[in-house]
Design brief:
Layout (H helix, E strand, L loop, with lengths): L26 H13 L6 E4 L15 H11 L3 E5 L23 E4 L11 E4 L1 H4 L15 H16 L2 H20 L5 E7 L2 E6 L9 H13 L5 E3 L5 E4 L7 H16 L2
Parallel strand pairs: 1-2, 2-3
Antiparallel strand pairs: 3-4, 5-6, 6-8, 7-8
Length: 267
Amino acid sequence: MVGCAFLPAPYCYRCFFELEYPKCQLRCARALEDIIRFNTYDNVAAFIAEPILGEGGIITPPDEYFLEIDKILKKHDILFVVDEVQTGFCRTGKMFGIEHYEVEPDIMAMAKGIADGFPLSGFIAREEIADSFKPGDHLSTFGGNPVSCAASLANIEFMLETELADQALKKGEFVKKELERLAKRHKLIGEIRGKGLMIGIELVRDSQKTPANTEVSRIRDICVDFGLLLGLGGVYGNILRIQPPLVVSKGQLEETIKILDIAFSNI
């Protein structure tokens, strides 16, 4: 993409630098200095990132990753833009995913979970950034749809009243614990990662981490036969994505684990 430079993903399971966390000392984050110096004209407008890389395979950065990134961005006077389209609105066990990392972005984009299915998106920014916009700088034909906005306000009120973020965190911890139990019996499971109810299961064929992309499709199909819908993703197409409605019950999650156990047992 013209005008853009890319930083290696904080993908500990398949480290770009072939290092191991935490001995790596966050080399993937520190590489930002090299990218700015050698891959740009040292005149960077903004750094854009997801708190957890959704389509990339639920890649979950180390807890200190964005602290290191933020330090470098401030040093070079670069804005930090965070994409909360998938991670926002309680999905990860916080209202916004970036809250797990103890940094505050300059601009935050959001959608999807904001209105519980109604079409709506938006962004917020630091006051000095927001005040720089002039009439006509930012507009949309369908922007500010009153029905979607009303749905969004009601949705957010429900999230706060029911402490949905805390619920998602606890449910996610339960799911990951159960998946770790399955991983002891099913060698296809290479790694389980994520936060809250945004969980990825990376499937591999061997100790060399060969992506099990055909196997993951078969597992998904078996799950469908039992009434369980799971997403697939990742660069190698070998990630099972568990991202259920946040109001999912514990009983439904227990049934999910049972079906996954059956699916893995039939591969």
